[in-house]
Each structure stands twice: as C-alpha cells, then as structure tokens.
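Submission sheet (multi-component)
Chains listed below:
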Amino acid sequence: MNTMIEIDVTINGRPRTLEVAANHTLLEMLRDDVDLTGTKECCVVGECGACTVIVNGRAMNSCLMLAAEVDGAEVVTVEGLEMTDDLSPLQGAFLDEGAAQCGFCIPGQLMAATALLMHNQDPSVEEIQEGLAGNLCRCAGYEQITKAVMAAARGAIDA
Amino acid sequence: MNKFEYARPETVAEAVDLLAQFGDDARILAGGTDLVIELRNRWTEPKVVVDVKRIPEFAPSITEHDGVVSISAGAVMADVTASDLMHREFPALPEAAVVVGSVQIRARATVAGNICNGSPAADTSPPLLVYGAVVVVAGPSGKRRIPIDDFIVGPGKTALERGELVLAIELPIPGRPSGSAYTRLTRRRGTDLASITLCCGVDGNGTTRLSYGSVGPRAFLVVDDSGVLADPSVPIAEKVEPLDRMFYQASPSLRSLRASPDYRLAMLRVLGARALETAISRMTKELVT
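Outcome: structure written.
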C-alpha cells in the first residue's frame, strides 16, 4: 500500500513502467505524466466524453478511472489512431465530412467511434448515435460526425 | 482529491481485513463511476481506496446454477446488456442497465456498485426488487445473504456493516408464465438521472410486483395478490384505481431539480400502466408459445 504506485501499462502499443500517484486519474496520468495531451479534460464527471480512451478494447471515461487501475491494461488514446504517418480511415472521414468544428470533443468522439467500429463493423445510424451518446459536441456537429463514422464503416466494408 | 493509499487486495479475506480495519476511512473501488467523482469533489476523503477488481471472485460473470442466476460484483452494465440469459429470464434488468449513463459508463459501472451507491434513482434497483434479488455479502464473520429489499436502506445507505462487501447478486429464475418490464422518465434520452424508475412484474398466479424509485428516499416494492392487475382479461380502465393504490409509498422531494413532485406523481401512474401492460403482454406471449 502506498500513495505512489508503480504500474505497467501499454499505451498506444508501447509498454511503459510508470510511477503514478494513487489519487491521480488516468486522464491526469495521460496528460501530465506521459504528455499525451490529445485526450481532453472537460466535465470531469463522465458526462461529456471528451476524455474517452480505449482500455482493453472498451471505450471508457479516463476522468472516472484512477491511473492505478490500468496496471496491466492496454490503453489507446487519440495519438494511437494514426497509422504509420497516416491518419486512420476514421480520422480521414472526419476530415472529409467536416465533422470537426472547434475540435475539442473530436479526440473523444474518435475514440468512442473507434471502439464502436471494433465491435460493430456495420453500424446503423441509430447504433452510431447510441455509441456516441456519451460524447457531447458543443458545436452540435452531430450530423457530420455520424456521417463520418458511417463513411468510415462503409469504406472498410467496400475495401 | 485528498491523498489516500491505494490497496489492491487479491483475496476476499484481505479485502475484508482492510475494510474492517479502516471502517469509514476505507472506500471500495469497483467501477468508480460514482466514487471517483466523490473523491475529486472531496465529498469523501478516505485514507484508503480498496480496489476489489483483482479479487478472483469479482471477475465479471453471469452464471446459472440450480435455477438461480448469479451476477458477480465485478459484472458491469455492458455485461448484463450482452447476456442472453439476462434477456431471456430477467428482461427488465438489461432494460434498466442499457439506459445507465453512456457506452463509456456502462463499460465500467457495476450492478453491485449501482445498489451499493444507494441512490434513490439507481436504475437497477426496481428490477432487482421485482425479481426478488438476494445480495451475497462477505464480512468478518463470514458470508451472509441479504434480500435486496433489506439491503437497500436509504439515500447512500445500505445494510452493509463495517468490513463487509458485496460478492454477488443472486436472482431466482421466475416460474412460468411471467412477464416483466422496466421503464423510466428522464428529461433527455442519454446520460441523465431518472426522475422516475419503475419496474413491473406479473405472473400466472395473479401476483403483480411493482417497484418504483426516484420518488422517495429509496426504491420501493409493492406487491398485489388480488389478481386484478395481472389479469390480461381485465380492461386497463378497471385497473386505474387498484394501480393508483400501489403508489402509496411515493413521496417525491420538493427540492429535486429534475422534476416537480406533482409531475412525478402524475407520470408515475402513466409509467405504471405502461409497464404493467408490457409485462402482461410478455406473459401472454409466453402462454402462446
């Protein structure tokens, strides 16, 4: 038992050993200890989804988890979506559809959508809306975001 | 957050020891979707946070044994909504689990935590009450089983004593024919706390079990054995009055920001009739097939 804990965690494919404070969230660890500032802090009560990351294949709010809880886990952040110097097809679709306006919610939207597409390669509009219901966009760009996810899913099916 | 120690016991005995030793200075961490908010706002300032997720008994599982389905304390809402067994035997529970928070929350929040948190608006409380759930608890003097109606006490309060923690929630598979349904009232569809939570269950013996939350200090269970409410052949107009009487426990708070007491009481009747009709139609479908 300690107020500092050593954890082993794989972040965006890279295994790391980190010393984290017991009272720090995963969000604080990612932004402050690992300098991955793509994950955004916003409501910090699990309502807006801006801090969404993928932990062991499931989308989760990093503001609602202690850093110590990801000991042994695989975490993917928005920085991990880029594939060999290129944007992921989903990121490309967000650009093509003009889904990003101010951009603040987009890392969270991308992570929630990535997790959705991992479990459901051919989602309906309703399934996309439900899958992203935990991600608020203050610019209200929901139409374009939904279209982008749909386009990415279609692109993967046609490819 | 205040400074606290993080403990990750590997056995139930270790967890019980820690909880017994620290008492109110210890907080159990399962999904953390409520606890981490409390910690950040310093509504709670524990000396130790006990993460129970690495204890083997807590591994997420939903299993059936001898007519009883056991939901482990580590099972999250998404596990319940993905379970065919749950949909087949206890449809109102996945109906309640699927409206909790968002995908992100449902991947993390546990059913056990939902009832341990003691919120009068907890979505899973009404179905657990209707299904006659039993909470399996481990503590310094061993295991005990607490009926859910005794486990839920009031806002933030449960029957858990010092050193105790929930291991599992057991649900007896209902006899046939039977039907049940969950419904809730919210201001918007996603990520909202309920202004009313309501579950109704009926069976072929004429018993109606109605449970409603968010309209008082805890979710209540009211049972009707008259046979009138559960009878598919009795028109709904004749059920209005007996159904009304089922809501005698409701006492919505004047202070709530989500809905006024008058509105809640009016909607309680609407939701009650709706859930009753759905439960009956599910029961009669069982009779046909």
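Remark: Chain A has two domains: 4-80, 89-158.
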